[in-house]
Automatic annotation (TrEMBL):
Keyword Flavoprotein: yes
Cofactor(s) needed: FAD
Nucleotide-binding in keyword set: no
Molecular functions (GO terms): dihydrolipoyl dehydrogenase (NADH) activity
Entry superkingdom: Bacteria
Name of protein: Dihydrolipoamide dehydrogenase
Residues annotated as domain Pyridine nucleotide-disulphide oxidoreductase dimerisation: 384-488
Family per similarity comment: Belongs to the class-I pyridine nucleotide-disulfide oxidoreductase family.
Organism, as annotated: Isoptericola halotolerans
Domain (FAD/NAD(P)-binding) ranges: 9-341
A Pfam family reported for this protein in Swiss-Prot or TrEMBL: Pyr_redox_2
InterPro entries (alphabetical): Class-I_Pyr_Nuc-Dis_Oxidored, FAD/NAD-bd_sf, FAD/NAD-binding_dom, FAD/NAD-linked_Rdtase_dimer_sf, Pyr_nuc-diS_OxRdtase, Pyr_nucl-diS_OxRdtase_dimer
SUPFAM superfamilies in the record: FAD/NAD(P)-binding domain, FAD/NAD-linked reductases, dimerisation (C-terminal) domain
Amino acid sequence: MAASADQTYDVIVIGAGPVGENAAARASATGLSVAVVEAELVGGECSYWACIPSKTLLRPGAVRAAARATPGVADPGPLDAAAVLAWRDETTGEGDDSGQERWLASAGIALVRGHGRLIRERVVEVAPEPGSGDDDGATRLLHARCAVVVATGSAPVLPPVPGLAEASPWTSREATAAEEVPASLVVVGGGVVACEMATAYADLGSRVTLLARSALLGGAERFAGEAVVEALREAGVDVRLDAEVSEVSRPEIGGPVTVTVREGRGVEQVTAAELLVATGRRPRTADVGLDSVGLATDVPLDTDDSMAVRGTARAAGGRPWLFACGDVTGRVATTHQGKYEGRVAGDVVARLYGPDNGAPEMPPEGARSWTRYAASADHTARTQVVFTRPQVAWVGPTEAEAREAGLPVRAVSYDLSWVAGAAVTSPDYAGRAQVLVDTERQVLVGATFVGPDASEMLHAATVAVVGEVPLDRLWHAVPVFPTVSEVWLRFAEEYGL
């Protein structure tokens, strides 16, 4: 549904990625009129350049590895790179967002295409994107009766390395949307994108060099990053830790790229067909018009747990009008956590302004009646999965983070290969799991799983952490035999129950 100039809605959401869609859907479900503004594709980064295509690229290699590790299964041989890329195109809709557009329409949510920015309180200006097909030259003004939600996500950051920008390196977008597999690839970075794309392109036949300034997956337990380093090297990836990129040279765009690397006291040059830089992202707040409502630009939007933006004028009763969720807040940079924040933001807007649920004012922070309307999991139960081989999955803080926060924790670790379910999965099954127990409250506060399909074991730990399930009750959650989840019984035994 297209909108004409100067239209009014109850709620305006800037950004139609999964986060913005969730906020819009939750607000719209209670009868509020909602418009979503999107400058690119409906479905956002996750659908076309991040989660969906990256996991699609990683899946064939994981299946091949599982087949090779299973006795009696014929070695499937090398991957068909063209077929993998074609499947990637299918899962991303080949860049066609008409299905997502139809979903918005079915939910009664208006779609306004163009670049949205605030020009004053509750007013969003939408400028047409050149070449979008919707460029009729008209700039639209959308007025929000109740609230504006900013869900503009984040963008890759290139470090200030001489010659890097001029070399036109890949970022995550180009890596997940590539039309062919380069013969060789240099990956700069040690986080999720760097590790996953190094895995995927090694699987697809590229000769990969990974350059990281420190340990891999610094946000996870150290043993997780070490397991990924070992696996990448076994897969043929040249992993170099404590490597500092000092210069990049690419005389001809599309030609080979040379990266100068400092390792210890030595300097070396690495040349490859392509270069992927995955060294971090920044919230997209530079051109959202935040200065028009008295907020700083090009920095994360500071929100409370209701996802209301701090520092803006409020209506009678302290009701906020500006909300933000997802990467743009700088809270937790994952799609699933951003969608959670979007649901919170949409529900809060609906409760404050909805025709059936309107609340006259905001309650004191932490009010029990509003507990479900607070994104508390951002602090205590953040979840993360890295789809490398082995997969790495964790919830809550690492052991170091927990101790730094003053929590009295005990780490209980177990070798997953010792669990009966591992032996029937593969004779070479390898993995490790660890839980963090708050010894005063006798509840779990964190857990990490490293191994094949570790992501599938995470949600049980998440439920235990969020639910603050006492260990003497968790002991009665009997795991099925023979599955790898039997590790939960081993945790209890190791702890002394």
